[in-house]
Fold:
Amino acid sequence: MVYFYLLSGLFIGWSMGANDTGNIFGAAVSTRMIKFSQAALIAAIFYTLGAFLEGSGPSGTLGRLGSIDAIGGAFTVALAAALAIVAIVRLGIPVAVSQTIVGAIIGWNYFSGRITDFNSLITIASSWIIAFIVSAAVAALFFYLMRRWINRSRLHLLEQDMIIRYALVVFGAIAAYFLGANTIANAIGVFVPVTPFKDLTIGSMFSLTGVQQLYLVGALSVVLGIYTYSHKVMGTVGHEIYKLSPAMALVALLAETFVLFLFSSRGLHNLLLSIGLPAVPLVPISSTQAMVGAVLGIGLAKGGKNIKYNVLGKVSLAWIVAPLMAFLLSFVALYISQNVFELQVRLPITYTVDKAAVKEIEQRGIDTKHLSFVNLRTFKTERELYKELMEEDFYTPEEIKIIISICENYPLLVNVELLNKGGLNRRFTEEQLKALSELDGKKFKRKWNLAQALSEYPAWKFIEPPQTRADEEHNEDLKSDLEIIYKVFYFPSDNNNL
Structure:
């Protein structure tokens, strides 16, 4: 059954292949510097490598935006997003895939009565704006450098074209690699905790975890999209917004590659943290916005006279329409899936303000004397409890968020074998796995009960208060690790006996 659900994620992968590779090679193909067949092959190989080797970097942010807790919900959300993407791609307009998926996730939040994590939403949305601006600025800078090189170079025109042609291939490959690392989470990130693939060992030297196989299958669906439908989108990016020369096509590609590297490289992320500098968040960005920003930056650097603002406006409108369409499709599809096909699109999570919860809230430094109006009450959804707490106006939104997380009834059974089956155990350190093994077979009523039990072990201890950005990053990574084991260890059958 999991394989059937996975089809919607692969559908997204196909739509990403149809859309995103146009952002990399559109200008090169349109200027006839690279044949479509060559561009498709390079994109396919290096996208797959990036997804396989580094695809887990940006995946956690989408999970914090809205943690879809049922595989039926993940299937429906992925399908809604894919349909929205395909609808716009069929018009030949490059769509912002990450924005579309965010719209679909928020649709699930609204349908399921969950509260959208606006901090994560702001982080993701701001990255879109930053990516667009940085790409435009970098492209303008590279334009001036490229013009100086062309004017001062004594190379024959044919030699210049050859250098540009090879550079387009090399940097196109690099861009495809980081595109795979950055965006594969958009396709199959929500299926990581329930991967149907078991560890695969080939000989004595080579092995693939279940998660690695999942990313590989997702990448192959992207490859299929590249070969079957990406040619049309390449035309829009390559010449309809602003007609580029081969040299300017290279400039645009260099700018997009820089932006993709900036938001995808865990190595750069860790390096900046190690030297005390603010790190760029590892989030799925819109490669469409990065490339369009680069093309616009070049056009403005050349005076802005020949920019086709009508086409630019059409593309920009798609960035607004796509997430709204995905939101509506997601909500409607979830309703149909739940009420017509009887799929479980959300876990039956409730929220109870009981004595244990009140005690924990008090220990977190929150005044509990104003909780009497909800004491010993059980709420069917997160939004119901949130609304009650907001109406009383005693607590800040951040305090309410903490109260809700403590009151959440989420039965858990620690089963390390479940981590081993999907290869998720390789995500954790030996110390973390040892701690989990010592708790193997134990049951917990709530997430924070398990988190408290694990906090007795140094490998699972948060740094409180965090003193540096590195400390904050440690805590964020630990939160992501905990969210993985919560999903894997969820055990509803014994809900009333914990």
About this structure: Residues 118-152 form the longest helix (35 residues). The radius of gyration is 24 Å.
